[in-house]
TrEMBL record, chains A, B:
<dbReference type="GO" id="GO:0046872">
    <property type="term" value="F:metal ion binding"/>
</dbReference>
<comment type="similarity">
    <text>Belongs to the SLC41A transporter family.</text>
</comment>
<dbReference type="InterPro" id="IPR006667">
    <property type="entry name" value="SLC41_membr_dom"/>
</dbReference>
<keyword id="KW-1133">Transmembrane helix</keyword>
<keyword id="KW-0479">Metal-binding</keyword>
<keyword id="KW-0812">Transmembrane</keyword>
<dbReference type="InterPro" id="IPR006669">
    <property type="entry name" value="MgtE_transporter"/>
</dbReference>
<keyword id="KW-0129">CBS domain</keyword>
<keyword id="KW-0813">Transport</keyword>
<dbReference type="Pfam" id="PF03448">
    <property type="entry name" value="MgtE_N"/>
</dbReference>
<dbReference type="GO" id="GO:0005886">
    <property type="term" value="C:plasma membrane"/>
</dbReference>
<feature type="transmembrane region" description="Helical">
    <location>
        <begin position="439"/>
        <end position="463"/>
    </location>
</feature>
<dbReference type="InterPro" id="IPR046342">
    <property type="entry name" value="CBS_dom_sf"/>
</dbReference>
<feature type="region of interest" description="Disordered">
    <location>
        <begin position="1"/>
        <end position="22"/>
    </location>
</feature>
<feature type="transmembrane region" description="Helical">
    <location>
        <begin position="374"/>
        <end position="397"/>
    </location>
</feature>
<feature type="domain" description="CBS">
    <location>
        <begin position="219"/>
        <end position="275"/>
    </location>
</feature>
<comment type="subunit">
    <text>Homodimer.</text>
</comment>
Amino acid sequence: MTDETDTTIAAESPSEHPEHLSPEFVRTVLDLVEAGEIEAAREKVAPLHPADIADLVELTPGEQRRQLAAAIAGLIDGDVLSEMNDWVREELIEALDPHEVADIAAELDTDDAVAIIEDMEEEDQRAVLRALDPDDRAAIEEALSYPEESAGRLMQRELIAVPEHWTVGHVLDFLRGQEELPTDFWEIFVVDPAHKPVGTCALSWILRTPRGVSVGDVMKREQTLIPVEMDQEEVALKFQKYALISAAVTDDSGRLVGVITVDDIVHIISEEAGEDALLMSGAGDGDINEPIRDSYKARVRWLVANLFTALVASSIIALFGAAIEKMVALAVLMPIVASVGGNAGTQTMAIVVRALATNQLTQSNTVRTIRREILVALLNGATIAVLLGIGAALVFGNPALGGVIAAAMVVNILVAGLAGVLVPVTLERMKQDPAVASSVFVTMVTDSMGFLAFLGLAVAFGLTG
Amino acid sequence: MTDETDTTIAAESPSEHPEHLSPEFVRTVLDLVEAGEIEAAREKVAPLHPADIADLVELTPGEQRRQLAAAIAGLIDGDVLSEMNDWVREELIEALDPHEVADIAAELDTDDAVAIIEDMEEEDQRAVLRALDPDDRAAIEEALSYPEESAGRLMQRELIAVPEHWTVGHVLDFLRGQEELPTDFWEIFVVDPAHKPVGTCALSWILRTPRGVSVGDVMKREQTLIPVEMDQEEVALKFQKYALISAAVTDDSGRLVGVITVDDIVHIISEEAGEDALLMSGAGDGDINEPIRDSYKARVRWLVANLFTALVASSIIALFGAAIEKMVALAVLMPIVASVGGNAGTQTMAIVVRALATNQLTQSNTVRTIRREILVALLNGATIAVLLGIGAALVFGNPALGGVIAAAMVVNILVAGLAGVLVPVTLERMKQDPAVASSVFVTMVTDSMGFLAFLGLAVAFGLTG
């Protein structure tokens, strides 16, 4: 993170800083590699920021990726790897020798090293660990002993902790005297004799305070401590809520064991917030770099689930086969009721899933939220019902049909609003991720109810004679 | 952000730190307010972190919210307001006198003050600005002159900038001597005589470097500069990509005019990543605190749009009215083809919208992504086709019907995969937000194609005699 490449595209022309590498640039580099002009390719790539080199590798098609990686091997260091898409990195790492991986891991902070090693096959993982020097190995092994996606995996063990009785001068001398300090740090931690954190000190306060003052007097006692087993999603929410730059991680006995910094959290905030859209759609947690086999497996499950819920809706239609035979307009109109209802349900569900994910929706306001969504549903339902009812009455020259479809629409949008709140809230109470399964249930409800309300009312009101 | 409340729930019991305020706690406070025991209520609320006080206000139902706000008025300061949900804050601010708002704004950093003032009615805004002292007013007026959601609105003007020839000792003395410094800062900026940034220095490097060294020798020249008009979404992507803690903001002529820090960005990262799920569902950018009128307006637009796309699908069914009358099984099965196809389209669309939002999908890999999605679609289509084809053949005792629905399923899932990539990519090329409108188009395509392929093939293969 602190490598001091002399220039970047960013520094040279801030206002024209490309949002991403231009297709021309990517093509130029790949053409050079293809033509065997390795030196020229390296010269093009060398001035890039590690994150841009990572992007370049991602943008290169699979077949050419290894060629490129071989050509610019020396430039793909730990910083590049830790910025790289998980799938692409995994593929690259698999092609490397355990010793090469160990060399890369050794130069990284614990958290970045763990991110690279944790996805490897167990056998390769052991080979890499063996190749590391004992200190690094112990740190990484300990991190790996914590559950996946927990604070223990995210934290780095390199941190500055000082006793409360030290003065600011003490701290300054200590920092200047130390050779081996974390690459970057933003706060120092104050600990008691049992190594339990009692406060934090932003570096800016240290800088502004006279040497004689004790750190106990400048530190902030209020602090958010992160238990080492806390899930990364919760860690991310804490960083957002309390606007943290870094936070102390403590073990079961309350001792300070590591630090998590915000630059490692921004990725997680973005991932966790973005993945709900993917999960709700039934696309798993994949992206465009996921291997096709994994994408197939993740998605087909939900399509099969959707197939079964569609069968439920379908069997409701089957009950009304005779009515449809008599009045084919019913078959023409019924998907509208289901479709608009499904959309209304998805709207509410998306709002509720997001509110649950950000801890905005709790037991204190569930009832209020249900009431709110029913009100919105009534307004929406009435609007759509009027439009569709009048339209259907005119087109089919049948006011009764218009009335029936209008009534069915109101019923289905109301049901959609209710299901849109109740399904995700219930899943959350059952300790399930509401983003994962809500969609299937909500769609089943709105499809089935759409057909049932419309066809049922049509029969009840004698439309089909 | 630096207020030094002595304790928080977090500091006292890290491992039991509640994820959100317990319903019991909320009820207790509201009961105290209701009973007029204002002092007791204040005592309960006072030890909370500003972000938790903001949550408490959000969790309180609308009717009781003003009562609560009045009771704990002194505790609702700028820090609490800047942590509060936009809708709830707007409602509270509207109830305040301009002078009260000005008092609150004066104690905040520019960016937080702007966030509070920018949503006010113009007249109230002017009243607040008049009540501010001239320096604060000028800073806020300038920020308001930048476009909404731009870097200019996000930045704070309080920052440390030093000339390149200064030594570390110089910087230290300067920092100790200044009374009026930003509340918190993590990096200092090095500028040339024209006040253009030439490098940044993390405080940790200043702390570790001997006094005699010049800042030009410790600073990092590589830096990401943010033009003042840059959209906040892009700013957030830069912070993520380059793992920034703070970044210099420059005006058109390249002069340093402000700084954006990561704690102001985490909210935006989360909002921007999370809002795509809401936008795709057609729920606008609202949340459970949005006023019902606004929710209705945002959502009904998309339901009406959906109504029209459903009519397209519906008119395709109408073309096949005669076929349905002869074979009602077609009406029973057709929603399955549309529904599973729609789901497959949504899966691809969600992946593609996310990849576009994170700059993972560019011109360099569009064709590759289309090829990839077609492959996944073929696999998914084949799987579903086999299941559904055999099932339909058995249930209806009609192998030809099974063959037709299987073929229709493959066609529709393929079309869904194509539409799932092409629709959002095309919208992006046309400078539209792909999250906003993709869903309507993709659903229209998969619904229409589902009915057309199934009913069309049924007729073509003479199923209906």
